[in-house]
User: Which sequence fits this backbone?
């Protein structure tokens, strides 16, 4: 049976980061593994969990599509409650996982349960449908937020995102030539996925340092 959580980093790390996966890949996908290892190496305790629909794919022949993001809100709340702990907590995730976290962030932040929100490739709109924005709740977001976004992410490029109405609590780190998995084309940018993971880890460390003193 798959463990409820996957842990990376020291148990006594000063800050815990809880990450949910994206719509199409599980919590132990290569990109999630690499990100967790990078953040753990930077000194965070990183915890990953899986939504039920994704966990079911491990034992079922049927590949159920993900529910609407709003339907996953209770599951994310449950994961926060089950994780427990007394230290500062940052919630977030990859793509859809970060979007779901963003929908509960303010309630948890106002209750003193989380210190911030970390989104790794935020899905500002579906690919090819820039008119279908998923940003309304981000305009008034009160939770300190860091979004790490590839400049050529088809869910929201560097050319598109500056036109959106976003809260001033949101900081965006742009990763040169990164796609939705934050991966660059080395032949174009001269950068590697490892380079961008290092940038994300450094940016998250600096940002979290302002939240937790």
Assistant:
């Amino acid at each position: 049976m798959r463990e409820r959580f996957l842990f990376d980093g020291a148990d006594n790390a000063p800050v815990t980061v809880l990450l949910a996966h994206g719509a199409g890949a599980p919590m132990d996908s290569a990109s999630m593994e690499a990100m967790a290892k990078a953040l753990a190496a930077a000194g965070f305790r990183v915890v990953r969990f899986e939504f039920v629909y994704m966990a079911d794919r491990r034992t079922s022949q049927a590949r159920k599509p993900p529910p609407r993001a709003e339907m996953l809100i209770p599951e994310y709340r449950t994961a926060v409650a089950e994780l427990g702990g007394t230290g500062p907590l940052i919630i977030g995730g990859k793509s859809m996982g970060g979007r779901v976290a963003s929908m509960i962030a303010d309630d948890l932040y106002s209750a003193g349960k989380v210190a911030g929100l970390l989104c790794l490739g935020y899905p500002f709109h579906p690919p090819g449908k820039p008119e279908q924005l998923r940003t309304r709740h981000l305009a008034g977001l009160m939770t300190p937020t860091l979004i790490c976004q590839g400049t050529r992410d088809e869910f929201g490029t560097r050319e598109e995102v500056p036109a959106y109405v976003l809260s001033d609590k949101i900081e965006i780190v742009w990763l040169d030539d990164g796609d939705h998995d934050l991966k660059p084309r080395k032949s174009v940018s001269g950068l590697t996925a490892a380079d961008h993971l290092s940038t994300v880890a450094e940016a998250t460390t600096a940002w979290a340092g302002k939240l937790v003193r």
Summary: The mean pLDDT is 95. The beta strands are 5-8, 16-20, 45-49, 89-94, 116-120, 145-150, 170-175. The helical segments are 30-41, 52-57, 73-83, 96-110, 186-189, 193-211.
